[in-house]
Amino acid sequence: MARFEDWLMEHGLDFQVRTYPAGTRTAEDAARAIGCDVAQIVKSLIFTADGRPVVALVSGANRLNAGRLAALAGGRVSKADADLTREATGYAIGGVPPFGHANTLPVFMDRDLVHHEVVWAAAGRPDAVFPITPAQLAELSAARVEELT
User: What does the pLDDT look like over 71-112, one tens digit per residue?
Assistant: First the structure.
């Protein structure tokens, strides 16, 4: 069993993690594999705000507005590299889940995600995802729901 699935079990959460051999590394790959709209894919993007890691949860159909994230996070933002992403979250780029990270990180969730009944997020590996309601996503990630795009 994968680390994220272990984390879910430890916290009494019963999400259906699904794996896709073709991979779910990008939002487009995930939407194609699942058979859903790319807007229902949650991209877990890791940035730094004045050197501190932060997470932005954004719809696969949207592009993050770095200026809005900077205003919310309280500092100049830049995309985290692969090493910092793994250090901060415990996961590699392409498989970062929206919660269950190695460290407690500030999380910002794009308001566009709340328009869907169900969204799909990475489950710790580049071939695994799980369905979740936007309300559960916001609650479990302790996210501030804001306009990020």
Answer: 999 999 999 999 999 999 999 998 999 999 999 999 999 999
Largest CA distance in the chain: 39
Nearest CA among 39, 54, 52 for reference residue 149: 39
Q: CA–CA separation, 89 vs 10, rounded Å?
A: 17
User: In this structure, is the dihedral angle defined by the CA atoms of residues 130, 47, 53 and 139, taken in order, positive or negative?
Assistant: negative
Q: Cα–Cα distance between 124 and 129 in angstroms, integer?
A: 8
- In 3D space, the residue among 40, 50, 36, 29 whose CA is nearest the CA of residue 128 turns out to be 29
Going from the C-alpha of 30 to that of each of 50, 70, 132, the distances in angstroms are 31, 28, 14
Complete domains list, the chain, with CATH? 3-146 (3.90.960.10)
Tokens of 96: 């970062």
CA 128, CA 122: separation in Å to the nearest integer?
Answer: 6
Can you give the pLDDT at residue 21? 86
Under a CB-based contact definition with an 8 Å cutoff, are residues 132 and 119 in contact? Answer: yes
